[in-house]
Write a structure and sequence with these properties.
The chain is α+β, with helices and mostly antiparallel strands. It has 4 helices and 9 strands. Helix 3 packs across helix 4.
């Protein structure tokens, strides 16, 4: 993939695929800005760096996006919303009649729309590990009840808005996830926007 970092003062040029082998070249006392034309690789590089204690940002929008970057403290839970019963949710339902512990009506068909959408949070796993589905009650223990309720509300609102816009274009967003963080005492959306 192509990458460009030379426009940033003092930038170190490292091929995104080689980032793990070059951590010693990166100053941990300065923010790291990843600019990669292949968004998924840029995202992966940011996750690797953040999991190793670096302050890292993905500039998918280009170098001009630096002016919009805000340093937020990530909330340690992933916010998953399911608008249709498919994938791992379908497998879970066939086995247990529930999705992530949420009991659903009998007789649902694969890929049937869920009204209202289900909020099914998960843990934030290390790179290479899988996120683990958790109950909403467990999420409350991890992030606090008030924060958990707000995250649930925001997740469903953002999903429903995106779902409706996509539907106008003939696209179904079956499920997705979001990551939120705290900035200036408020919750903001920071990553994983509409990741399928």
């Amino acid at each position: 993939s192509e990458y460009k970092t030379g426009a940033l003062e003092g930038a170190v040029n490292i091929f995104v695929n080689d980032i793990r082998d070059n951590l010693n070249k990166i100053d941990k006392d300065r923010p790291v800005y990843i600019y990669c034309t292949v968004g998924a690789r840029g995202y992966l590089a940011v996750r690797i760096l953040r999991n190793r204690g670096f302050e890292a940002y993905n500039l998918v929008g280009g170098l001009e996006a630096m002016n919009r970057v805000k340093k937020a403290k990530p909330i340690m839970a992933e916010c998953v919303v399911r608008g249709y019963i498919t994938g791992s949710g379908w497998k879970d339902y066939k086995k247990t009649g529930a999705v992530c512990g949420i009991k659903l009506p009998e007789g649902l068909k694969e890929s049937e729309q869920l009204i209202p959408p289900l909020f099914t949070p998960s843990t934030k796993a290390e790179i290479g590990e899988h996120d683990e589905n958790i109950s909403f009650e467990k999420m409350k223990e991890i992030v606090g009840a008030e924060t958990a309720e707000k995250l649930k509300e925001l997740t469903i609102k953002v999903y429903e808005r995106a779902r409706d816009i996509a539907a106008e274009k003939g696209i179904i967003i079956a499920d997705t996830k979001f990551e939120f963080g705290m900035f200036d005492g408020r919750i903001i959306l920071i990553d994983e926007v509409l990741t399928p």
